[in-house]
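Record type: monomer structure entry
Structure origin: computed from sequence
Chain ID: A
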Amino acid sequence: MSRLKWVVALAGVAALAVPALAKELGKGEGEVDIVAWPGYIERGETDKNYDWVTDFEKKTSCKVNVKTASTSDEMVALMNEGGYDLVTASGDASLRLVAGKRVQQVDTSLIPSWKTVDERLQNAPWHTVEGKHYGVPYQWGPNVLMYNTDAFKEAPKSWSVVFEEQKLPDGKSNKGRIQAYDGAIYIADAALYLMARSRSSASRIPMNSTRTSTRRRSTSCASSIP
């Protein structure tokens, strides 16, 4: 039932001109500026159990500066402004950044752990253009369907409860009772649902069901039924 979404980290460019591809690691600048989804780059401020920045700063003497963004559009806008080194861009933003020359090619030979990346992701089309890598996939997660136990005594067995109008187990219609991420990427969720159905049955599903349910790339995308 879950659709996997992949998160791509892209090397950012602060200026319009894209530097030549680095063939070796140079001297560090002492800090790195990153645009990231909330919760992706934690230093224990939200929860002390989640801190992967402090040790990095101690080992590298490189200060990590993070600017959070809530949508892919916001990430693209920030990268267009310049001044950032990295962005944890989703697939709906990465190719826009590549086309806009806001990111530069990554030499994967400089990444020691590159060989451990799943081969299905190494050349994924949302960060690889004409054989050149502009990003490094580093994590993935499922889209999670959350539901209200007052409406469902048992967990839903199909995403149809989100994308097709129907009566829920509590006897009431799901119309107007669905919450979803308000972003164009959520159309992909609806498209995957339609693709999983037969062509004949899919054609009968109103297209406005995809228009009203839009959602992001986050590691864990949740739809909830109040």
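Annotation 1: The chain is about 25% helix and 20% strand.
Annotation 2: The longest strand covers residues 4-11.
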